[in-house]
C-alpha cells in the first residue's frame, strides 16, 4: 500500500516540489519517483485538505486488509452526522469577553448540575435544548489567529462582543477582520445592555459601516443584546449560535479513526504530559495509538471538561488526554494510527524536522517572488494588511490597491488599522498569507521578531504613491530588489 510521490501530487492537485517540501517538513526524504506509505500519504494529503482512500477495486488483496480499511479517510456523505459548533468569543478589551464566557458556562451549570465545577481544560461544552455548543476558553482574535497561522482551523462561529456603552472600537474591527479572513460567520453580542448609558442602536449603526448589517435592518448578521453581568440574553445567544450552526450544516463522521487538534498542553508533575484535544472527526477512545507532532503514545485516560472520566468521545468534543510521550505544541493535529509502532514512526520523523527548523520551507507570499508565484498559478489573491498613522491613508490605499487587480491576481486588502504594526497583524498575515504595509508606522520589536520567524513580508513607506508603485511593479514582475 504505497504511492509514488508524483502520483500523490497529482491526486491532491499540488506541484511535486511543494509536496516534496511538505514531506521534508514531516521528516520524510523522498524523490519524485519514490514511494511513500499510505499512512504518511494520508496525513500529508489531509494537510492539504484532501482525504485519501485506498481504491478497493484495483486490488482485491488490499480490500481484504482490514487495517487499511479502517484508515478509510474519505468520509462518504451518508456517514456524516451533525456535530456541535465550536465557538470563539472575540472583541475589544473590557467589552466583556471573559464575563460572557463565564455567564454562558454558569447559566448552563446551574441548569444541569448545580454545584458542578467546570474544569479549565481549554474548551468546554454547554447544552441548550439538548444540543451542545463548544466554547474555546481563550477569548480574543489573537489566540484564534495564532491557531490558524499554525494551520489549525477549529472555530466554526465567532461571537464578536461589543459593549453597548462604548461602541465599536479598534479591536472590534480587528476581531471582525480576523473572523472574515477565516471565512467564518459572525454573531454580534451587544453586551452591557443593563447599563443606563447603553446604546445598542449606535452599535448597530457603527457595525453597519463595517459590513455587518443587522437582520432587522435588512441585513443578514444576527445581533443579540446581552448582559453578561446580569445573565440576560444568554439563552437567546446560545439559540442563535445553534441556528447559525444549523445553517452551516456542520457535519463529521463519528465512526472512523479520530483526527483532532491540540488546544493546549502542559507537563503535569504527577500525570506527565497532558493535552487537550478537540476531536474533529471520528471518535477517540482510550487505548488508541495517537501521534500529535513529535508526541506519540496511547491514550491512557480521558477527562471531559467537567473532569469526568470518559472512554470514547466523538466529533466536536474537547477532552484532556494522558499518555503522550511528550508535550505537543498547541495547534498540532492529532491523528489516530493503527498501532504504537506507526505512531512512533510518524512522530520521530516530525521530531527531526522540529530540530532542523531551517528545513522549513517558505511558502509565504512576498513582493519579491509574487510575479513568479502568480505565473505558477500559486497565488490568486494578494492579501494585504494596511497599517497607517492616520485613518484617511487607510481608505486611500485600500482603494488604490483594489484597482491594481488583474485577471491573474486579485488585490485584496483584508485589514486596515491605525497604529503600529503589531503581533496580531503579523499572525493574521501569516494565517492568511498576506503581506503587511505600513505608512509612517513601524512594526513593534515583537512583531518584527515574529515576522522574521513566520516569513511575513513587512514593508514600510512614507508616501502612498511609492507603495502602490512597488506593488504594481511586483505584480508585473518588474520590482527592483530591496537592499
Ligand atoms: P474582557 O476584557 O473583554 O474579557 O472583559 P471582561 O469580561 O473582563 O469585562 C470587563 C469589565 O466589564 C468587568 O469589570 C466586568 O465586570 C464588566 N462587565 C462585563 N459584562 C458586563 C455587563 O453585561 N454589564 C456591566 N454593567 N458590566 C459588565
UniProtKB/TrEMBL annotation:
One of its GO terms (cellular component) is cytosol. Residues 85-233 are annotated as: G-domain. The keyword Protein biosynthesis applies. Residues 57-76 are annotated as: Disordered. GTP binds at residues 91-98, 137-141, 191-194. Its main location: cytoplasm. It comes from the Bacteria. GO terms for molecular function: GTP binding; GTPase activity; translation initiation factor activity. Residues 57-69 have a biased composition (Basic and acidic residues). Keywords: Cytoplasm, GTP-binding, Initiation factor, Nucleotide-binding, Protein biosynthesis. Residues 82-251 form the Tr-type G domain. It is found in: Cytoplasm. One of the essential components for the initiation of protein synthesis. Protects formylmethionyl-tRNA from spontaneous hydrolysis and promotes its binding to the 30S ribosomal subunits. Also involved in the hydrolysis of GTP during the formation of the 70S ribosomal complex. Belongs to the TRAFAC class translation factor GTPase superfamily. Classic translation factor GTPase family. IF-2 subfamily. This is Translation initiation factor IF-2. It comes from Proteiniborus ethanoligenes. The lineage of its organism: Bacteria, Bacillati, Bacillota, Clostridia, Eubacteriales.
Amino acid at each position: 500500500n504505497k504511492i509514488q510521490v508524483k502520483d500523490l501530487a497529482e491526486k491532491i492537485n499540488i506541484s511535486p516540489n511543494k509536496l516534496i517540501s511538505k514531506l521534508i517538513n514531516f521528516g520524510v526524504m523522498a524523490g519524485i519517483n519514490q514511494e511513500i506509505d499510505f499512512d504518511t500519504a494520508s496525513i500529508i494529503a489531509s494537510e492539504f485538505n484532501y482525504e485519501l482512500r485506498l481504491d478497493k477495486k484495483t486490488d482485491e488483496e488490499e480490500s481484504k486488509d482490514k487495517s487499511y480499511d479502517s484508515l478509510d479517510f474519505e468520509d462518504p456523505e451518508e456517514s456524516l452526522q451533525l456535530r456541535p459548533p465550536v465557538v470563539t468569543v472575540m472583541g475589544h478589551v473590557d467589552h466583556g469577553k471573559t464575563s460572557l464566557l463565564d455567564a454562558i458556562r454558569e447559566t448552563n451549570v446551574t441548569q444541569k448540575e448545580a454545584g458542578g465545577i467546570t474544569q479549565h481544560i481549554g474548551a468546554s461544552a454547554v447544552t441548550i435544548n439538548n444540543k451542545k455548543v463548544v466554547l474555546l476558553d481563550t477569548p480574543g482574535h489573537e489566540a484564534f489567529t495564532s491557531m490558524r497561522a499554525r494551520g489549525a482551523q477549529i472555530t466554526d462561529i465567532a461571537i464578536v462582543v461589543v459593549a453597548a456603552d462604548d461602541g465599536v472600537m479598534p479591536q472590534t474591527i480587528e476581531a471582525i477582520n480576523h473572523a472574515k479572513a477565516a471565512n467564518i460567520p459572525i454573531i454580534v453580542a451587544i453586551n452591557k445592555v443593563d447599563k443606563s448609558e447603553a446604546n445598542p442602536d449606535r452599535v448597530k449603526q457603527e457595525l453597519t459601516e463595517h459590513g455587518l448589517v443587522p437582520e432587522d435592518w435588512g441585513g443578514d448578521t444576527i445581533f443579540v443584546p446581552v448582559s453578561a453581568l446580569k445573565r440576560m440574553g444568554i439563552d437567546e445567544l446560545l439559540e442563535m449560535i445553534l441556528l447559525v450552526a444549523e445553517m452551516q450544516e456542520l457535519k463529521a463522521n463519528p465512526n472512523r479513526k479520530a483526527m483532532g487538534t491540540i488546544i493546549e498542553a502542559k507537563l503535569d508533575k504527577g500525570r506527565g504530559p497532558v493535552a487537550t484535544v478537540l476531536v474533529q472527526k471520528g471518535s477517540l477512545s482510550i487505548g488508541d495509538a495517537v501521534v500529535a507532532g513529535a508526541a506519540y503514545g496511547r491514550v491512557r485516560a480521558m477527562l471531559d471538561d467537567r473532569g469526568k472520566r470518559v472512554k470514547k468521545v466523538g466529533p466536536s468534543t474537547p477532552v484532556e488526554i494522558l499518555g503522550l510521550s511528550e508535550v505537543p505544541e498547541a495547534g498540532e493535529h492529532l491523528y489516530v494510527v493503527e498501532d504504537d509502532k506507526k505512531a512512533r514512526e510518524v512522530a520521530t520523523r516530525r521530531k527531526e524536522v522540529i530540530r532542523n527548523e531551517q528545513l522549513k520551507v517558505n511558502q509565504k507570499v512576498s513582493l519579491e517572488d509574487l510575479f513568479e508565484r502568480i505565473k505558477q498559478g500559486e497565488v490568486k489573491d494578494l492579501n494585504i494588511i494596511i497599517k497607517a498613522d492616520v485613518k484617511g491613508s487607510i481608505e486611500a490605499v485600500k482603494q488604490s490597491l483594489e484597482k491594481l487587480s488583474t485577471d491573474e491576481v486579485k488585490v485584496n486588502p483584508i485589514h486596515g488599522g491605525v497604529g503600529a504594526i503589531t503581533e496580531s497583524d503579523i499572525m493574521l498575515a501569516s494565517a492568511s498569507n498576506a503581506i503587511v504595509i505600513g505608512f509612517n508606522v513601524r512594526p513593534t520589536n515583537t512583531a518584527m521578531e515574529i515576522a522574521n520567524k513566520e516569513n511575513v513580508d513587512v514593508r514600510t513607506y512614507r508616501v502612498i504613491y511609492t507603495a502602490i508603485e512597488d506593488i504594481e511593479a511586483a505584480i508585473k514582475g518588474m520590482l527592483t530588489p530591496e537592499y
